[in-house]
Specification:
The structure is a homohexamer. The longest helix of chain A has 7 residues, at about 40-45. In chain A, β3 (about 20-30) and β4 form a beta hairpin. Helix content of chain A is about 10%, strand content about 60%. The first copy, chain A, is mainly β. The first copy, chain A, has one helix spanning about 40-45; strands spanning about 1-5, 5-20, 20-30, 35-40, 55-60, 65-69. In chain A, strands 4-3-2-5 form a four-stranded antiparallel sheet. Chains in contact: A-B, A-C, A-D, A-F, B-C, B-E, B-F, C-D, C-E, D-E, D-F, E-F. The interface of A and D includes residues 1, 2, 22, 40 and 62 of A.
Chain lengths: ~70, ~70, ~70, ~70, ~70, ~70
């Protein structure tokens, strides 16, 4: 399945913190560059996520803000 | 200003494509890893964006989906 | 690719209205039930969208609000 | 009240799963076509949601992604 | 229609700037406090928006970030 | 840090309700006008939020819907 979201950053699962409804997933997309994701626990289970698994962090371009110092 | 969004990836502006209302900004957050952002033209102007400028790609954790092959 | 978004409604492209930056895509997910999507023109081109093509309308559960009369 | 979100799919509540902060609501928008929503528990209570109640699944067009196989 | 979004700020339309696809609407929700919204032009037309019209700025709680100086 | 989100409403924290993963923050942006935000508990802790603290409610223009009666 190919999705219209513009960003699909390939990475490795570094940490998974399950809550009751949501699960926090940390993905390393480059050495030292991590992206934190919160998805439903049902989705995390359905995807079979585990540490070191290869995944994509998928982000719509309109959900990326830009900030400057 | 410090914001509650969990992800603030430091990077460099690689490309700016202005439209009439929105502007597309490409940020390199690691060698070969780019994030595409769409913000309003007014915001892009207000931030003084330009190629090679140092910026942050700011993304809420709940806006990051996870995908697997 | 399998994505963490909870909703992936199978449907058929009914209409495509391209703008300069964004494209509006109407998907029929059941007889008489249509979902309108706005994606970037770049994504629409990349997906090879065309009328009558089978697609999925992918929506995160947290982006679905509930309303009552 | 009429809202600017482009999609308001009429349906019936099929299931409600309350959490501590959020509630998961499943809406059948056509026979066999279900949309899962996560809203705050406060909103779910305020709307008086219950199984078989008629509701609308309200979704902004920009929150609908398109995927192809 | 009552919607699950937690915030519905009553206000007055101060400005409408139509684009080709999107329209920018500025709503004054308190003296000197304005909220800028971008909705599709189709929605703006359908709602019959005009300057000085009473409207609500509707925002999901999960779309409100917090920042500190 | 200056961010591309169009809305940054200055206000005062009126209430903080912590959950296990998320925290609900109520901000008064004008006398009698409150905005409810849900952010991760980790973000709330990191920002050092407390009642009566001055904060900004930061909202992207595309996340503001318009409704009429």
């Amino acid at each position: 399945m190919k999705v219209s979201a513009r960003n699909a950053l390939k990475g490795t699962v570094k940490a998974i913190v399950p809550g009751t409804v949501n699960t926090e997933v940390t993905v390393e997309v480059a050495p030292g560059v991590e992206v934190v994701s919160i998805i439903t626990k049902a989705s995390a289970d359905s995807l079979g996520l585990a540490e070191n698994k290869e995944v994509y962090a998928v982000i719509k371009a309109s959900d990326v803000m830009i900030a400057v110092d």
